[in-house]
């Protein structure tokens, strides 16, 4: 009989793991959100769409390139070659082109995850609240203490603080304590076409903001609807994490207008998203690409092990799967 495996979180890491393990195990993914995306999510309303988490990704390892190959072939993943500038409050803008391919999913960032989830069992809108051991099984419970299932293995791909809260510290705690995560604000704007910047994206220095993109100009989007995504720096988000959210939004709008030259009157919609666990802090010398206690049949993976990038999420999960496949 195949072993049963519960994976908590259906972001890129959870889906990678599920795809790798599914031929050899009965895998169930639990995802608290209503849809797939995690930190590669897309927000929509009647007129606009914004990729408010990851804006692009690179592919350096041959394993990640192999995953992407069919998705590039069918147009789910497209290379993005923006007209990119560098802005700062006290210096003239200058161009610093990218020297390696950068990719986006099309027509929205979460499309890659939707494509990866084909044929997998994903239970959406299902938050795992508690993980407990009973004899030789792991029991997963939801917020109403209802049993979600009993499994031989449980693996968390949730962001680090959520993984820490779920998995028994006595089995994984010391290892998990070595990593940490930082917040970020995403400001989502709709802007009249005539007032849009001439560049597609901007890296920003010395400001509360670190990144601005004309999201509607990413490949495969509706280029008519001016949709801007602004990301704050982690330092600024940390300093303003508990501030009044309306005040945070106004400060980021002011900074955006000052940097980009866009008139605030041209902004027709503005939303703020607070990511409490956005990016992992740099891991100078990573201890491991994942965390595993094989005798307890418990593991954790995600971008936080390797420095907080889309490819890091893939690598952590893919390496964990390779080790697990020898043990199942
Ligand atoms: C604002 C922002 C900008 C970024 N920009 C870039 C970029 O430009 N390039 C880049 O490469 N990377 C970027 N990143 C990082 C990138 O998005 C992540 O590295 C990657 O998406 C992480 O994938 P993951 O699967 O490890 O985690 P996640 O995508 O966070 O997936 C974890 C999933 O677990 C779910 N979950 C959590 N707790 C529970 C629970 N109790 N029960 C059930 N489900 C649960 C969550 O809902 C989530 O879907 C950015 C991230 C943010 C937030």
UniProtKB/TrEMBL annotation:
<dbReference type="Pfam" id="PF01593">
    <property type="entry name" value="Amino_oxidase"/>
</dbReference>
<feature type="domain" description="Amine oxidase">
    <location>
        <begin position="103"/>
        <end position="324"/>
    </location>
</feature>
<dbReference type="InterPro" id="IPR002937">
    <property type="entry name" value="Amino_oxidase"/>
</dbReference>
<protein>
    <recommendedName>
        <fullName>Amine oxidase domain-containing protein</fullName>
    </recommendedName>
</protein>
<dbReference type="Pfam" id="PF13450">
    <property type="entry name" value="NAD_binding_8"/>
</dbReference>
<dbReference type="InterPro" id="IPR036188">
    <property type="entry name" value="FAD/NAD-bd_sf"/>
</dbReference>
